[in-house]
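TICKET: design request
STATUS: open
ATTACHED STRUCTURE:
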């Protein structure tokens, strides 16, 4: 077995080993910087036919150009302020943060500034430095740029991939409450910007692009809040659509859930840490629709796409969710005004229901028996098929349920629901 194949490790062992390796890596990084600093100070790169430490790092140590630059800058700063070595070794600072801090470190402020930057991300350190050493605003410019030449960019799938890095277009802190934004826009966006600038002249006589952008974002956020959260100045009385669409979440529930959870994933780890993701948010049923869950305030929460997928796989099993995702990708899109295209066949629903029941913790025999005994009941969707099968299992185990559910029936194991009508929510 390869030393890098870790499929045999349990989750707990894998996480524990990873923590040990990260700790070792921090100590190794501190030692690496100390060695680079000493080789640099002794100019030992010269006998190696290298004109600089940067060249030595690339030619002899085979570091990438940006990695060499970062390590040399961090090593020189740490040689001048040795407390940096300890901060890197115990995880309070990282090399990227040291590079940002280096130009501002002095004998008088080193201890205080390094402490203030402890356990902060690169972006947070940029904000810290902008607050202490503000830079002037960038001049407002809107000018044409020549088109890029060469081979076209490769096509990518719509939407960012899982674990994708953040966009490179971001606001850079300049001073307290001041940020610089640089981006490239196409012709149509430029025309929209100029039109908005003209229409806003009565409010923004100067036509300042930053103010125009602020007004535009206000309008956009109002529209998005209405679409995603059901936000409105005059909310109407909620009308239930559960009978026709059990997955529908009423606007009043959306408003209450987002007021409670905010615009942030509500997933909380066993250690009490909440997910910080604010993008790709989705509404999730704590008790899934297939298990009788309804779109109530208590049963609905905000989750990011990754944790929504994680919760579904935790409840139903990875095989069941993978089967559903594969079928959804292959199904053609429905035309407006027509029935859903590529709807699952009864055989496909039966197969997915079997995977779902097994993912819930039932044995293959129990799942097949429940499906067979409930096959005569009407069901046209996977959710309905699962509900009536779970109701059958509930009846089959009624005597055991009356004695109190054992630990294995709690969330993550078997959790029975009360029988419901096949077409109910």
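STATUS: resolved
RESOLUTION: sequence designed for all positions
ATTACHED SEQUENCE:
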């Amino acid at each position: 077995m390869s030393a890098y194949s870790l499929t045999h490790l349990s989750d707990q062992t894998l996480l524990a080993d990873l923590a040990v390796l990260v700790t070792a890596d921090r100590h190794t990084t501190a030692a690496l910087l100390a060695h680079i600093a000493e080789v640099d100070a002794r100019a030992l790169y010269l006998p190696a036919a290298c004109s600089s430490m940067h060249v030595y790092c690339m030619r002899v140590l085979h570091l990438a150009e940006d990695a060499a630059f970062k390590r040399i800058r961090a090593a020189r700063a740490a040689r001048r302020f040795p407390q940096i070595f300890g901060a890197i070794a115990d995880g309070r600072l990282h090399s990227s943060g040291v590079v940002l801090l280096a130009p501002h470190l002095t004998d008088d402020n080193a201890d205080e500034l390094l402490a203030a930057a402890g356990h902060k991300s690169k972006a947070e350190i940029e904000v810290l430095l902008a607050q202490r050493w503000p830079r002037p605003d960038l001049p407002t410019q809107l000018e044409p740029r020549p088109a890029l030449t060469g081979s076209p960019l490769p096509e990518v799938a719509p939407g960012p991939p899982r674990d994708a890095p953040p966009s490179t277009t971001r606001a850079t802190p300049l001073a307290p409450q001041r940020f610089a934004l640089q981006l490239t826009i196409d012709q149509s966006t430029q025309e929209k910007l100029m039109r908005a600038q003209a229409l806003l002249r009565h409010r923004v006589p100067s036509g300042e692009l930053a103010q125009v952008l602020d007004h535009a974002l206000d309008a956009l956020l109002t529209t998005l809040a209405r679409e995603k959260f059901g936000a409105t100045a005059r909310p109407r009385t909620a009308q239930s659509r559960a009978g026709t669409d059990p997955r529908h979440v009423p606007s009043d529930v959306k408003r209450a859930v987002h007021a409670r959870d905010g615009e942030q994933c509500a997933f909380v780890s066993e250690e009490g840490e909440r997910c910080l993701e604010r993008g790709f948010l989705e509404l999730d049923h704590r008790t899934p629709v297939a298990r009788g869950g309804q779109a109530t305030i208590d049963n609905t929460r905000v989750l990011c796409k990754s944790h929504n997928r994680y919760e579904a796989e935790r409840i139903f099993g990875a095989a069941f969710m993978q089967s559903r995702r594969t079928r959804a990708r292959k199904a053609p899109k429905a035309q407006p005004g027509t029935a859903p295209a590529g709807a699952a066949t009864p055989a496909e629903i039966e197969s997915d229901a079997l995977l779902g029941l097994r993912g819930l913790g039932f044995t293959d025999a129990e799942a097949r028996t429940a499906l067979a005994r409930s096959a005569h009941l009407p069901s046209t969707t996977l959710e309905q098929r699962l509900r009536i099968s779970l109701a059958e299992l509930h009846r089959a185990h009624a005597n055991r349920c009356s004695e109190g559910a054992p630990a294995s029936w709690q969330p993550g194991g078997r959790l029975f629901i009360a029988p419901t009508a096949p077409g109910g929510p």
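CLOSING REMARK: Residues 187-229 form one domain. The chain has four domains: 16-132, 187-229, 251-316, 319-331+343-409.
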